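User: Um, what's this?
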Amino acid sequence: MNMDGNITKEIELLLKGSGLSEGVVSTIQQWLDAGFRSKGRYGWAQLTLITCDSTGGVLEEGLPGAVAMELYALAADILDDIQDQDNNSLPWRKVPPAQAINLATCILVLSYQALSVLSNPRYFEEVSKVLNQIGLQACDGQFNEFLNDSKDKITFVEYFEVINKKSAGLMAGACKIGAILGGAEQTLVSELEQFGTCLGIMSQIKNDLDDFLNLETKSDFVKGRKTLPFVYLLNVLNEIEAEELKYLSTLASKGLAEFGPHEKEQLRELVVNEGTVHYCSAIHEMYKQRALDILKGMPIPEKRKEKLIQLVG
């Protein structure tokens, strides 16, 4: 059975033994499938298992942590989308928020339930601590992101503080869980955690850049979300251009009916003329190189590094 097949079987067993009603189980499975269509199949579980394998771990030991991470990330995505009022095409955005929050809570509990089959009590304790830390950091990051939304301008330091706690924290946590379940020494666990942080920052920068001008389906600019392109522009524009950007942001916040083709072109010109894409791409490349440097220094066989290198791209 391939990796996806093992993960699917483990999730099915977990849901079957959960005592949840048929309707809840069916909805969770549908929401998992919807997440796969938008982000790829079992991305979080696979990241955890690849990391586990790189340290010499075995599939059977890493699988519970991989399933836990997959479910945990789904719950986090659901809650994030509800709070951001984003990704309206996904199924959890098509039900009342209270219902979606209830099911996200259920999925979160299931992620911990997945760990209960770990044979080593120390692994259960350590992985649970990682999940707890991921959650606390994500909540802290989301809280500060909301605060940043109301500010006219934030620094690059403030931007990276938030994403380190949110998207980067999730990927760092997945890598750390895989390393723990692979039996890695603490030094290697820390290195793989740092590697995951780089992956998470790279992913967030790519999303920020892809979404910034996508006003029809993403709410980043409309809500004044301080993504990297926005933060960059706020910090490099001269006074006149900054006022233009502020005007466009205010207009966008009133709805797309107010923000027509002319305004979209104004925003696009600001992005292009100020080298926004080049800057974001350069920062992305910097973290890519940092990830590769971390891998280069890891005391694991080159053969086991291959899949990790592929993750960097």
Observations:
- The radius of gyration is 20 Å.
